[in-house]
Design brief:
five-stranded parallel beta sheet, Methyltransferase, Methionine Synthase (B12-binding Domains), Chain A, domain 1, 11% strand, alpha/beta
């Protein structure tokens, strides 16, 4: 990892808002890959999330970190859209939300954003989403892919409950379910009953492209 990338991760994770924005803007202005810049933001947010779990950071730090990412995303998103040439047709519907008991939304927001600019119709239903809300939204939106996000380890049980509720409602065979979050791996995927997991936004996009080819 080159020096300015380390500096950006450190600035975000240490809550140096003005410095983080200036670094990201300088990288984008000189032509660095905007997707890479957002990936660095995600890595910084993993550090923030772990500090939150250890009670070194609290809700104000999470909110500030989210604001930093929003501000950086606001200048990165148009550049990614330019590179992709804009998407004319929608490839399929994806419903995404952070499961109940978890308030982390940075990774989810990056995934939503990447899917959107690559031609998927995305409905983001927010954070701390109850199982019943997922089921209701699936009935109404009729997605082909459902993304369950969660950073905290307690989210794994919520993911499992959500998958089981979708199955109990008779909706499971109509869609693919992917999970994602800071500590999600193959063992967690097996535990929750999801079809696949993505450790970052690019993997989530790859999964959706495999499941919903244009």
């Amino acid at each position: 990892m080159i020096e300015n990338e380390k500096q950006l991760i450190e600035a975000i994770s240490e809550m140096r808002e003005e410095e983080a924005f200036a670094l990201a803007k300088a990288m984008l202005d000189r032509g660095d890959d905007p997707v890479r810049v957002l990936e660095l933001c995600r890595e910084a947010m993993e550090i923030v999330g772990k500090r939150f779990e250890r009670q070194e950071y609290f809700l104000p730090e999470l909110v500030l970190a989210g604001e930093m990412l929003e501000n950086i995303g606001a200048i990165a998103k148009p550049l990614i859209q330019e590179k992709s040439g804009g998407a004319a047709k929608k490839l399929g519907r994806v419903l995404i939300g952070t499961v109940h008991g978890d308030l982390h939304d940075i990774g989810k927001n990056i995934v939503s954003f990447m899917l959107d600019i690559n031609g998927f119709e995305v409905k983001d239903i927010g954070v701390d989403v109850p199982v019943a809300t997922f089921v209701q939204e699936i009935r109404e939106f009729k997605p082909s892919v459902v993304g369950l996000s969660g950073f905290l380890t307690l989210a794994f049980d919520s993911m499992k409950e959500t998958v089981q509720a979708i199955e109990a409602a008779g909706l499971r065979n109509r869609m693919k379910i992917m999970i994602g979050g800071g500590q999600v791996d193959e063992a967690v995927r097996t535990y929750t009953g999801a079809d696949a997991y993505g450790s970052n936004a690019v993997m989530a996009l790859t999964l959706c492209r495999q499941w919903l080819p244009g």
